[in-house]
Structure formats: structure tokens, C-alpha cells
Design brief:
mainly beta; Thrombin, subunit H; six-stranded antiparallel β-barrel; 16 strands; about 10% helix; disordered N terminus
């Protein structure tokens, strides 16, 4: 079963009206680079193994929950194992990258406890049909999990459909989050989307088609698949996050730029594939 967005009339996407895109307004303005445990509960960690007898290890890629049994990541994160989904899994409800599944609760020295992460095996990998490993365009893939996700306060989907969406991302300030190289805790940041012309000026090359550049205030190297999010506002109140992009790479050539796969051009492809896997 998938959730209906009444505004768009589409079956298959997690919508702004449904239980998705959890947002607490107070957290929009905090300076802490780490998330709270229930913040961005759609973000998980991709893990992989070389063969069935080995232990899963971090693939240094993020995933984002978009359906009852589907997550998104970049195609470049799973291309090597595209035909071997049994070697791929995701850890959801994870706050600390080093935490292992199977732990009921994980507590710090002050007695603060959170549930341990839950690991789901991947049943199928669907890369975008126009994903190009040479140019990097359409760098996105859907992972269908082997079982339905058990949603909790720490594991929830992000909305796919906005209530209102600008025609251009340029100059919009977005939130993003995921795991990264600087800390083992799930982190967060913000970035202002810039024009393709200015991105080319700063980096020497324009981003591939269906991608855009963002300028963050800090040089944190997030793993691929980190989720960039817009905000659904209703009655002048920020209600939920919806997915805008997935981080595909960063460029550090004097200026530090993040390149995101734009979700808008591939949104219907995502919805159609989630719909087909749930029917």
C-alpha cells in the first residue's frame, strides 16, 4: 500500500498530507552540525559485502526512505553490485554510523538511550534507465527492500511531492542531511542552490543534466545520497520536508560546492517504480 497525495492525484508517492517528512520548526535554526536522533528519520546508511559469507560494512553512502519498502540512493553507489542485490543492505533508524543492528537500545554515559539500527536486506536494485556513469547524469537508483519497513519515531519516510514548488531552485536555501566523513553521527547542513552559469564559473565545468550545485557555508564532506530537502508550508507554518535532491559529489577547487541530483525531473519515474513494486 502506498499513500495518495490529494493535490496531485497520484498513487504511489509519499505525500505532504501523509505521515512523512517529519519536521520540528525549532530544529530548523539550530547550529548543531549533528542531528537529534529523531531528526531526518528517513536517512539511513547503505552497507555492502563482497560475498554472502562476509559481514556487511559501510558503503559510505546514504539512503532515503520514500515508500513502505523502498529507499533511494545514487546509482553510482550501487552500480558495481547492480546485479547482486543480495550483497547490499540498508541500516535504518541509525544515528551513529558505528552502531550495529541487533542492539535493542544504545545508551551513552549519561543514560540517554535510543533504539539500535534495523538492517534490511535489498531485494532488487533499479537504476534510472538513463543513468550515465561517464557524465554522471541521472545518478539515482531505487532499492526495493526484502520486507516492509517497520515505521517508528526513528524510521519514517520523506515526502516526495511538494504542496507548492518553485519553477527554479536558484537562490533557494535548502536543508540537507546524512552521514559524512567528519563525524560518526548523522549530520545536517544547509546550502544555497546556485545557477549553472555560476557553478561553471566556480568549478570550471557545469553540472550534468538533471543536476544542480549548492553552496554550503561549511566544508563538510557528506557521503553520496545525502538528502536535500525543501519545506512544505501550510497556513504560514512549516509542516514537512519533501525531497529535492540527492548529493552525488562535491567539488573543492578553491570554492567548495556540492552537486545534487535533481529529484524534480525524475520524480514520476520514482513514483511509477514504487507503485509497480507495491502492486
Amino acid at each position: 500500500m502506498l499513500i495518495v497525495n490529494k493535490c496531485f492525484g497520484s498513487v504511489g508517492a509519499v505525500s505532504a498530507e501523509a505521515n512523512c517528512g517529519r519536521l520540528e520548526e525549532r530544529l530548523l535554526f539550530t547550529k548543531n552540525p549533528s542531528t537529534e536522533p529523531t531528526e531526518y528519520p528517513w536517512i539511513g546508511l547503505l552497507v555492502q559485502r563482497e560475498d554472502l559469507n562476509q559481514k556487511f560494512e559501510s558503503a559510505e553512502c546514504n539512503v532515503a526512505i520514500v515508500g513502505e519498502s523502498d529507499v533511494l540512493t545514487t546509482a553510482s553507489c550501487v552500480r558495481r553490485l547492480n546485479n547482486r542485490p543480495e550483497l547490499v543492505a540498508v541500516r535504518l533508524g541509525i544515528w551513529d554510523e558505528k552502531d550495529e543492528p541487533g542492539q535493542q537500545y544504545i545508551c551513552n554515559d549519561r543514560g540517554f538511550c535510543v533504539p539500535g539500527p534495523v538492517q534490511y536486506l535489498v531485494d532488487a536494485i533499479t537504476m534510472h534507465p538513463l543513468a550515465d556513469k561517464d557524465t554522471g547524469t541521472n545518478d539515482i537508483a531505487i532499492l526495493r527492500l526484502s520486507q516492509r519497513i517497520n515505521m517508528t519515531a526513528y524510521i519514517q519516510p520523506v515526502c516526495l511531492l511538494p504542496t507548492l514548488e518553485p519553477a527554479s531552485w536558484t537562490s533557494v536555501d535548502f536543508h540537507y542531511g546524512g552521514f559524512h566523513q567528519s563525524d560518526i553521527k548523522k549530520g545536517k547542513g544547509s546550502a544555497i542552490a546556485i545557477s549553472r552559469q555560476y557553478c561553471k564559473y566556480e568549478t570550471g565545468t557545469p553540472p550534468p543534466e538533471n543536476q544542480f550545485c549548492g553552496y554550503p557555508p561549511f566544508r563538510d564532506a557528506f557521503f553520496k545520497g545525502a538528502a536535500m530537502m525543501g519545506i512544505n508550508v501550510e497556513d504560514d507554518v512549516p509542516r514537512s520536508f519533501y525531497l529535492v535532491g540527492l548529493l552525488v559529489r562535491y567539488v573543492d577547487v578553491g570554492s567548495f560546492m556540492i552537486v545534487f541530483q535533481d529529484i524534480k525531473p525524475v520524480r514520476h519515474w520514482i513514483i511509477d517504480n514504487i507503485k509497480s513494486t507495491s502492486s
